[in-house]
Structure formats: C-alpha cells, structure tokens
Amino acid sequence: SCAVIVPRAGNSLVVSVRSCDPELKPAGKFCERFVFGGGRRAAGGVNALPAAELDHFVLQFFQYFAAPAV
Question: pTM of the prediction?
C-alpha cells in the first residue's frame, strides 16, 4: 500500500491512498478516519489533512496497513 502526500494552500495536505489488498484493507475505510477523507476499496484519500496531523496520519497508515487482517 502507498500514500502520496501533496501540500496545498492553507497549511493543509492532499493525500491519495492506494491499498495493495483492497478486500482485507480497504483504502476508503482507512481514509474515513480523517475529516474530509473517504474513497473506495482500492483507492481513497483525504482532501484537506491539516499539516499538523501528518505525523498522526503516517502512524495510523503503518498501523492499519501493516497489521494482520482480521
């Protein structure tokens, strides 16, 4: 799985997420944890992630996608 993070105006970031295992680890479900986040199984994103939340996003990303599927 991967995420592409791009800065945008207003001290926020646009995040695009792709899941390498969309059936067990849907990208959209992960992105829904964040305000302005959502998507589908294979692809999701966050339209305006506050820059101050980047470390939290990265930690959550690795925990979600690295954890064994339940």
Answer: 0.92
Contact between residue 33 and residue 42 where contact means Cβ atoms under 8 Å apart: no
Residue type, 62: F
DSSP state of 67: S
Band of the pLDDT at 68, cuts 50, 70, 90? confident
Distance CA 32, CA 44 (A): 9
Q: For 21-54, give one letter per residue: b (16+ CB within 10 A) or e.
A: ebeebbbbbbbeebeebebeeeebbbebbbeeee
